[in-house]
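lol forgot to send this yesterday, sorry. struct tokens for the thing we talked abt
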């Protein structure tokens, strides 16, 4: 799994939940991912930050509520990592 940019199955799970939500036209937040995966909030938050540091996620401000951050999975970065491996 490392060649795809993920060190843990949970990282891949969070990434693909966010990607599926995006494809469905929704804008997921950390709270949404917690509800979808059943992982604790602190775990999802840490995994999202790790994926952000690797360049696989972007945080965007929620236009409706600035306290929330919208997650965006950068699938082009994932595809680039797979081509390198």
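and heres what i got for the seq, position by position
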């Amino acid at each position: 799994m490392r060649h795809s940019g993920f060190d843990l199955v949970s990282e891949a799970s969070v990434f693909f939940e966010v990607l599926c939500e995006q494809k469905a036209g929704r804008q997921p937040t950390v709270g949404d991912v917690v509800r979808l995966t059943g992982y604790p909030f602190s775990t999802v938050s840490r995994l999202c930050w790790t994926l952000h540091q690797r360049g696989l996620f972007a945080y965007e401000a929620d236009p409706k509520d600035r306290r929330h951050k919208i997650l965006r999975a950068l699938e082009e970065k994932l595809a680039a990592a797979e081509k390198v491996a």
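The longest strand covers residues 57-61. anyway ping me if u want another try
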